[in-house]
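Appendix B. Raw example, untouched.
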Amino acid sequence: MQNLGKWASVASGILGLGAVLFWIFDQHNFLAPAVVLLFIALALAVTASKALKGFSFTLLIFAAVAASLFYPQFFLQIGTFKFTNLIVPLLIIIMFGMGTSIGIKDFVGVVKMPKGVLVGLIAQFTIMPFIGFGLAKLSGLPPEIAAGIILVGCSPGGLASNVMAYISGANLALSLTLTAVSTLLSPLLTPFFMQLLANELVPIDFLAMFWSIIKIVILPILAGLLFNHFFHGKFSWLDKAMPKISMAAIAIIITVITASGRDALLSIGLVLIVVVIAHNFSGYILGYYGSKLVGLDEKSSRTVAFEVGMQNAGLASGIALEMGRLATMGLAPAVFGPLMNISGSSLATIWQGKKKS
């Protein structure tokens, strides 16, 4: 593995230099493969480092995004089959995997940690929706793209937050409980806040969005819970495979969304990236210090920070698709996903090295 890491590091250096030269001399035919291969080489290089290997998946996502920006025609359809048709089934698989990884004990946490759960849920469904609304208003982006920023803010916490809570030594039980409960509340709260905050940007049908979330999230999670209850431990291969399947599904979803909204993304990409970073960091900062303000301990405060800052961007993408606005409303979730993994991994690594009270 170390030899692979060394060779990949050398290759990434060469590819990085080549990409810069191709860009300077306007050699776009060579620039595209150089950039894609650069991210792949970097992903292989960081796997040899214990401190950095958590970034390998995100770097592979960047490789996929780069490929979809340079070669969108390969990620839109084959013949008459459109790749956007894969998004909802892939989300259902991801949510089923989430259901198989949790149990009734994760919901018992509501009783055991009522204050932490209440603070986390209030922060989740106030900070991110209203910060998203404010950023959407200030951004000057087209209405449907701006609505995507609000949509990210109105979504529940994502599974990535549980991973970051584990790495950083935060309160993992609280993280799992918050993710599960916020996800189960999302059919009501996500459409409610979207109708409240985004209806002037795009028409919001509460019942249609409610049903979309039930179909994409709740039913697959319930199926996963039942599977976990009746067949726990009987299919160990599935337990090992589901995280990898979920990661591959996320990569495919982001790639398809990027290809679908390529033209819009190229024209407003920098502004959207800045807005998404501001949204993401606001969640971390306000979630953490808000929790400290009401008396939560250090571990629980870190947990709430991750739960608030890291949203279920995949669900937001699925809702955008169901609304027929994947190439516009789906852009903010597509940008939010990779960036939150970078920031979340970095924050988890920083906190991992600090003493926890």
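End of appendix B.
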